[in-house]
Amino acid sequence: MTSATLKRRQHLLSYATKQLDFLNQPKENGEQFTSFESKLNETGLDPLKPTKIDTFQINVGYMCNLTCGHCHVDAGPDRKEIMTRETMQECIDSIKDTDISTVDLTGGAPEMNPDFRWFVEELSKIDKKVIVRSNLTIILANPKYNDLPEFFAKHKVEVVCSMPHFTRLRTDSQRGDGVFDKSITALKMLNEEGYGKEGTGLMLHLVHNPSGAFMPASQESLQKEFKKKLFDTFGIVFNDLFAITNLPISRYLDYLINSGNYENYMQKLIDSYNPDAAANVMCRNTISISWDGYLYDCDFNQMLEMKLKDENLQHIRNFDLEALEAREILVDQHCYGCTAGSGSSCGGATS
Amino acid sequence: MSKKTYYNAEDLNKFGNISEFSPELGKKFFDYYGEVFKEGELTEREKALIALAVSHTVQCPYCIDAYTSGSLEKGATEGQMMEAVHIAAAIRGGASLVHGVQMMNKTKELLM
Ligand code: SF4
Ligand code: SF4
């Protein structure tokens, strides 16, 4: 596993436009992949519109202590994009008096933003449900993070953490050597605070995504198996497992191309297009905000720099919920990752 | 058209095309095939692993390709998949060896 991000290496795929160009290229045999838009059209979903915006997914920065092979953010220790407290305040002001109930904090490792704790405290003051997407290992990365489980519990933060597999091999091959063992320790620390335990109200969810060029197994059967294996071997408990499909962008796209799996994987996603999953894609109820305050349909579109069509809506300082709910969602070939099989979102399967 | 080898990986994706020359039989086969692999008393994963073992027995590269992906997609681990292949190997080996009894019977018949 390389430790430098695509951006640091000035890799072609670190440019959003190059990724989109690649995704729209014909196959080796000259045929074109069916366009996502035409699939949506067949199922009567084109143009794709929001249902009701319920969740603010805020990306507070691309810095991360890990450099996972599949990362769609191209996050890593060398990324410097970090949300400022001013932008966080703009987010708070925008949603304070709305029905938006949930703020989902992501990154990078969101905990590495110096204003992370301040932000969580302010969000809980305005009674929003706060979700943090944690890579677990951050809790052990530096003594200053060791009390995160306690901090999360104090603010009733819902913890959604990456745990691709219950075997060391599969987890470390995707996330780096030693990640599995650290994740296990971190999960135990969260359990000690009451996370994942019945009656505490402290929710701990795990995210599984395949360590390779294949689609995830059924969420239900994986959840059963993860629960059994993690409890029997380590005494760890958790609430739900979210099975997520890897989208063909950024470092995962780089992996697909280098391993010679790109065409087959893309075709598999297309062949597995599921209209029910398409009707439930997360961009219909979520808005994504980048570290610099721009709005996107989702974190993937953020990474592909697909800013909202209407220029007046593009930044959080011009936040207008009604107009956002009337907008058209921008789609491209990567969207097939959300609509394949049982569907995929930040909350796992969608159908 | 590529004539380099008899087996082409891309042909796996064209499996469905066998219906072209005989639509009715093709449909019957694929309907049946679909039913067979649905979750029943055996889980989808168990079925994928059995298919993987059988693929190694019939030594069909298409089937091995399909059920390696299939097993991974049903959540099987590398260990489970290799154990399945060992089942195929054990049955094949055993099938040879058990005929050793026949050899022994015949030998005893022929020797004084
Ligand atoms: S996948 Fe998550 S933990 Fe891994 S590098 Fe990306 S942001 Fe960091
Ligand atoms: S990639 Fe984003 S825009 Fe496309 S379907 Fe998924 S959530 Fe929606």
TrEMBL record, chain B:
Gene Ontology molecular function: peroxiredoxin activity
SUPFAM superfamilies for the chain: AhpD-like
Ranges of residues in domain Carboxymuconolactone decarboxylase-like: 23-103
NCBIfam families: ahpD_dom, perox_w_seleSAM
Protein name: Arsenosugar biosynthesis-associated peroxidase-like protein
